[in-house]
């Protein structure tokens, strides 16, 4: 938002501010991507049967940083000497986060094939599965456009960072973004089917489904998947992608509003904080005159 709004309104100095903040964010993202998977594997290994889509969240930090790098290079009013290191590091982050995301989704699929299904309270996390691929798709598209905007041509070093290499690299990056979005579409559809099947099954057996904060797992992955679709619509000037991305945007807005409503309601009633269970188990003291007070537990 800094480069999209402040650079245009208040000048190129804000592009430098965003540039510095991006490097700080990138350093933290790389530490997270390197450290948390190591903890999962070596220190607190949950086992394949306990792997949830939430294990993908650390990887999304690197992909989000890469997407931010592409946006900064396009709209930050930076010179090629500043843009090229950001582009290269962003591509490295995509390679780091995307390949690990594919690996972990394969592990989760192995768990499902073993008929070890997540609990109903965790079913909304299935939408997280499309998150890394939506974000990676947007990052690859943004980086491809940054490469095509003469950053490599102005830098002109070696055989890779040249004007001759810019067009094939840029178009290949945009094509990769389209391919990755297709893979993300599978997981988006899988999550829709999985969540719908679970909710319909509980309704058929007349089982109550209560709202939990896990429902917020729908918003961010859906949002980045939509953002990638918006970008594809711009790149190809495609009415199909424009209509589809608009429909996705409207639906995620409805989900966001509904989640806000039930979250506020749950906080007011105490359901989300577990206060209703505290009230139910709280002791009640009844005064019985000379025989003394008696404590009843509700």
Automatic annotation (TrEMBL):
The keyword Cell wall biogenesis/degradation does not apply. The chain crosses the membrane at residues 12-38, 50-72, 84-104, 178-199, 211-230, 242-262. It holds the Pfam family SLAC1. Coiled coil: none annotated. Keywords: Cell membrane, Membrane, Transmembrane, Transmembrane helix, Transport. It is a multi-pass membrane protein. InterPro entries: SLAC1/Mae1/Ssu1/TehA, Sulfite_efflux_TDT, Voltage-dep_anion_channel_sf. It is found in: Cell membrane. One of its GO terms (cellular component) is plasma membrane. One of its GO terms (molecular function) is sulfite transmembrane transporter activity. Belongs to the tellurite-resistance/dicarboxylate transporter (TDT) family. This is Voltage-dependent anion channel. It comes from Aspergillus pseudotamarii. The lineage of its organism: Eukaryota, Fungi, Dikarya, Ascomycota, Pezizomycotina.
């Amino acid at each position: 938002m800094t480069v999209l709004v402040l650079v245009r309104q208040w000048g190129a100095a804000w592009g430098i501010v965003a540039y510095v903040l991006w490097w700080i964010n990138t350093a933290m993202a790389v530490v997270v991507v390197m450290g948390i998977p190591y903890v999962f594997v070596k220190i607190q290994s949950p086992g394949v049967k306990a792997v949830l889509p939430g294990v993908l969240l650390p990887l999304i930090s690197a992909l989000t940083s890469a997407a931010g790098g592409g946006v900064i290079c396009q709209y930050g009013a930076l010179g090629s000497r500043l843009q090229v290191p950001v582009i290269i590091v962003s591509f490295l982050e995509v390679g780091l986060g995307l390949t690990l995301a594919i690996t972990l989704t394969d592990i989760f699929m192995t768990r499902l094939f073993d008929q070890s299904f997540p609990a109903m309270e965790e079913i909304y996390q299935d939408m997280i599965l499309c998150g890394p691929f939506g974000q990676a798709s947007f990052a690859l598209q943004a980086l491809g456009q940054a490469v095509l905007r003469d950053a490599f041509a102005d830098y002109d070093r070696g055989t890779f960072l040249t004007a001759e290499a810019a067009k094939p690299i840029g178009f290949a990056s945009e094509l990769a973004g389209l391919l990755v979005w297709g893979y993300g579409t599978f997981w988006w559809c899988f999550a829709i089917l999985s969540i719908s099947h679970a909710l319909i099954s509980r309704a058929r057996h007349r089982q109550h489904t209560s709202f939990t904060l896990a429902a917020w797992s729908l918003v961010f992955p859906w949002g980045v998947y939509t953002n990638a679709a918006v970008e594809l619509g711009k790149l190809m000037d495609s009415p199909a992608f424009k209509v589809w991305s608009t429909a996705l945007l409207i639906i995620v807005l409805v989900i966001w509003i509904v989640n806000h409503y039930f979250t506020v309601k749950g906080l007011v009633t105490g359901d989300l904080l577990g206060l209703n269970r505290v009230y139910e188990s709280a002791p009640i003291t009844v005064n019985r005159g000379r025989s003394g007070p008696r404590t009843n537990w509700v």
